[in-house]
Amino acid sequence: GLLRFSALILDGREIQRSTSAPLLDANRAESNQALFNAWTWVRQHTPPTAVVEANPDRLIYQYGLYSDRRGLAMGTECGGFTGRWAECSALEKSVARLYGSGGRNSDFNRFCTNYPLDLLLVESADPVWTTPHSWMETRTPVYANGFAKVFACRP
């Protein structure tokens, strides 16, 4: 509901022109649909016990709405639900490197080896998406569309 309605407002150039508000995202509706499709793919192609990670530095509404899978470090939820703030902080810093512009292939391998992770979901808004020579260029996603890619830790 709310995400679908907000897209009409955020994508609508008439509202932007009439209120002089900045155009935040001209592709919000298309992006939301693509992320819905990616999380739906995850839900349909993984067992309920799968662990999926998205960028811990972003609010990921689609994860909460559509994934129905466990995550490792989704924002402040890790520390908030476990009370293990130090462990969660270290985990979030580790995974955030993968989504930033400095993530390397060795970071991906180390993260997938050291944590019980099955999939990583990357959005087009994540810095790694446009970073040349990132770990994303050396891996083939198991699912991809114009706004999201899903990478498996294990074949």
Question: What does this entry look like structurally?
Answer:
The chain is of the alpha+beta class and 155 residues long. The protein contains seven helices and four strands; from the N terminus they run αααβααααβββ. The chain has helices at 2-11, 13-19, 28-45, 61-67, 77-82, 85-99, 105-114; strands at 52-53, 119-123, 143-144, 148-152. A four-stranded mixed β-sheet has the order 1-2-4-3, covered by helices on one side. Helix 3 crosses helix 4. The mean pLDDT is 80.
Please give a handful of descriptors for the protein shown:
globular; alpha+beta; 155 residues; 47% helix; 4-stranded mixed β-sheet; single chain
Regions with pLDDT < 50 over 5+ consecutive residues?
A: none
Largest sheet descriptor: 4 strands, mixed
Shape descriptor reads: globular
Give the radius of gyration: 16 Å
Strand order of the largest sheet: 1-2-4-3
Count every beta strand, where a strand is a DSSP E run of 2 or more residues: 4
**Arithmetic mean of pLDDT:** 80
**Helix fraction by DSSP (H/I, runs of at least 4):** 40-55%
User: Approximately how much beta-strand content do the residues carry?
Assistant: 5-15%
Distance between the termini: 36 Å
Task: Please report the number of helical segments.
Answer: 7
What string, H for helix and E for strand, traces the elements in order?
HHHEHHHHEEE
Helix-strand makeup class = alpha+beta
